[in-house]
Every structure is written in structure tokens, then in C-alpha cells.
Amino acid sequence: MKGFRALVVCLVIACAAVVSPAAAVTPGWSALAVPPAAASPVTVTDLAARGPGEAWATGYEHAADGLRPMLYRWDGTAWSRDTSFPGAGELGWLGKVQFVGEEVWIFQNRVGVGEILRRSPGGWTAVPLPQTLWTYQDFTAVPGAAWVVGEDDTGLKVLHYDGATWTAQSTPDGVRYLMGITARTATDAWAWADTDTGTTVLRWDGTAWRDANVPLPENSNVHTVLLEPSGRVTIGGSQYADGVSRTYLMAFNGRAWRTTYPPLGDTYTEAMVRGPDGALWLPVRSDRAFQSKYARVSGVRTTFSYGPERTNAIDVKPRALARAGSSLLSFGTVEIYGSRPNLMSERLGG
């Protein structure tokens, strides 16, 4: 009788696997090899993907003589380092990377001077900024427009590029500095700012920067604003209450804002992306030294998954995520016992 029951159970499992393989097998995170950086430690800045066959990761090495720019390319099969861009052999760092039409645009601090790297089918070119800033806070680009925000000795600077010329844009009174900026189109850009009254979200409508009147939680800040072609907007940040920080998410459906507090602790949401499954994905602090950890937020439900186990790892930190077709790419650092942090990449699906 026991043997008969065992046979029935085996047949049921086998039939389920044949009828619904997707339900029976859940894809997990896998490790992708990354050529190590020359200097260690390293800092990862950003990651962007056009599809499953092209992605770029930026950052910098902490070399003995200063920071050195670092650029890696994914071709759908392997990661390789790119050193063909202007300034690759000089001191500096690479910031945000974005796809603009058929080109790749990257912000570069080149020996203290800001510029935009542009990669087209003909190779790399550099677009210099109209002035040198003390600090370069953020960068964003879309077809027909790009912005660089930072500060000089006179205060906040918002530099706008229309593809041919640079202009300086003004912000509403009371804005001290911009912490980040992103854009959906040349006439729809968003920025999060520190103002006399606290954190505020601003919006560019093609004519002027104005308060977007986002009802942010009290005593909160903003880490990122995720704009999507559908018109959906998602804001991620932290709220401070009774000396404790907790992560919040705000979603705008075109009519109203909705605020939720998923169980993410005090996770920094800058790397949050919309995954191919329609959910929000972001790296979180792992409770396992030898594995990365990711959160998936879908409506009111939050689930977690771990990256592959890494032998002798004592700290695995995904720093940036990007949707690459039907998969998710992750890029960050891993510290193996006895060595300094170096580069790592992982993929979900694919």
C-alpha cells in the first residue's frame, strides 16, 4: 500500500511538471563573471540596460593616486571592461549612464571638470559643460535634453543642454540644492530638492521648474523618483519618526498619490527598478554574509530572494539594478575573506 501511494505521488508531481513547467521551476539568481578592477576597492555608480544584449555599468576605482573612472559593458554573454572613452586613463569618476536614442550617455568628472560622454556607432565623443562646478550632484538625459545639477561658489546650478547649447535654469525660491534629477521627456523632468521648508519634489514642464505638490510623508526625504512611459510615477525615500528611519514608497496613478510602508527597514531605494514581471525590485541589506538579497514589492505584498552563494564571501552588495529584456541584471561588489571588495554581477531569469 505504501509503495502504491509513493507511485501515485510521483506520478502527480511528474504530471504537474509536464503540464506547467513554469509553475514547477522558479528561476533564481545566477552569478555572472566580471573581470576584476585593477585597483581595489571599487565603487559602483550606476547600471543601465537597453535589452538582454547590451548593458553598461559605471563607477570608479580607489587607486593610490586618486579616483580612476571605471566602465564595464555587457554584450549578452559576458562582461568586459571598456577603456576606449576619452579620459579613461585620467583621474576622475563616472556617474549616471543612460540610453538616449541609439546612443549611450554617461556623466564624467574628468580631473575635476564635468562632461557628458556620448557613444554612438561611430565611437565616443565628449560634450563639455559650460562651466566647472564645485560638486556634481546628478545627471539625466532624454532625447532632446539633458540636465546636470550641482553647486559652485554662487550656490545651486541647474545646467540644461538642448543638444546644441547650454543654459542655466532657475528654481523656485527657497530651494537650497537639488539632491537628484530624472526625466521622462524633454518637457517632463522631476527633481527632489532640499528647501527652506524641508524636502520638496519639483517638476519641469518645458517652461519652468515648479513645486510638484507631492504630499511627502512628514519628516521624510527622497532617494529616487522612478518615471515610466505609462505616466506612472514611483517615489522611494525614508521617513524619520521617534528616532527610527523606515522606508516608504509613493505611487501616482495619474490622479492621486498613495503611500505605503513595505517591510524594508531603512533600505536606501536609489537602485529601485520596475522588473519585467511588473513588480518593483531593489537590493536590500542581506542577513547572509555570503549572499546578496533582493526585495520584490508588488502591491501590498513584499517578498525576498537571495543571490547565489559565494564561497568565503563576507559582504555581498548589489549597488544597481536594471531590467534587461525578460531578466534583471545586478551589478555591485563582493568582498572575499582576506581581500578588498571587487566587482560582481548577478542575473535573475534570462
Question: Any overview of this molecule?
Answer:
The chain is mostly beta strands and about 350 residues long. The protein contains two helices and 28 strands. The chain has helices at about 1-20, 20-25; strands at about 30, 40-50, 55-65, 65-75, 80, 90-100, 105-110, 115-120, 125-130, 135-140, 145-150, 155-160, 165-170, 175-185, 190-195, 200-205, 210, 220-225, 235-240, 245-250, 255-260, 275, 280-285, 295-300, 300-305, 315-325, 325-335, 340-350. The strands form seven sheets. The chain has a four-stranded antiparallel β-sheet with strand order 1-28-27-26, with no helix packed on it. The model is unreliable at about 1-25 (pLDDT under 50).
List the helices and strands and how they pair.
Elements: H1 2-19, H2 21-24, E1 29-32, E2 42-51, E3 54-63, E4 66-74, E5 79-81, E6 92-100, E7 103-110, E8 113-120, E9 123-128, E10 135-142, E11 145-152, E12 155-161, E13 166-169, E14 175-185, E15 188-195, E16 198-204, E17 209-211, E18 220-227, E19 233-241, E20 244-252, E21 257-260, E22 273-274, E23 280-284, E24 293-298, E25 301-306, E26 313-324, E27 327-336, E28 342-348
Antiparallel strand pairs: 1-28, 2-3, 3-4, 4-5, 6-7, 7-8, 8-9, 10-11, 11-12, 12-13, 14-15, 15-16, 16-17, 18-19, 19-20, 20-21, 22-23, 23-24, 24-25, 26-27, 27-28
